[in-house]
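Sample A.
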Amino acid sequence: MQDVVHLLLPSPHQEQEIKTFIIFAFFMKALYLLHIVFVQSSVDVFFLDWERPHATPSWPRDAGSAAGESTTAVSIWRSYFVANEWSELQCHRRVSLPMQLLALLLLLK
């Protein structure tokens, strides 16, 4: 049985290899992130909101408006809702949480 704890540090050559791998991994990850930003910024998306404008406003019209302008614009909250739904559609979980928890439960038993 061993009485003294020995710690073997990497040799200078091994340390240089580790530094090289870490630097290479950093630059490859940065390149991957640049690729993701490029792909996401080069996508053309057109939203078609089929919600019709509401009929007449609840307040009385002023005398200066034209007869054909009796509809109001769609609320800004509708635009926020559509943007939120689009954001949720872009998020995709690659790992199933229930399967991961089940595997963790089986491994810990």
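Sample B, a different protein:
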Amino acid sequence: MTNLFFFVFVSLSAKFYFRPSLFRISYFNSFDFVASFSSIEHSGLGRYNDPLDPIGDIREMQKISCMLKPGGLFFLGIPVGQDDVGHNCHRTYGRIRLPMMFAGEYI
């Protein structure tokens, strides 16, 4: 199991340093499946000290598509309803934004 978050992780040990942005390069086409639940809808809104990015959620979907093996499965849990951005808390996906989330080459 591998877990990612927005932050750079620095261990007290000088032997371990991890930058999430480099993870997708190291693990290109590596995973048979990816599961994301209640996470991507927060990407790019700055609530968890992540960089502000109006398409941060779409970028995360593209990163995931690069990490999946061809034919890999993606299990996604996001709020669905009328398109909305709830302050800097989360997005709700509807007729406009939901298709944008799945516009990638592999997803």
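Observation for Sample B: The longest strand covers residues 68-77.
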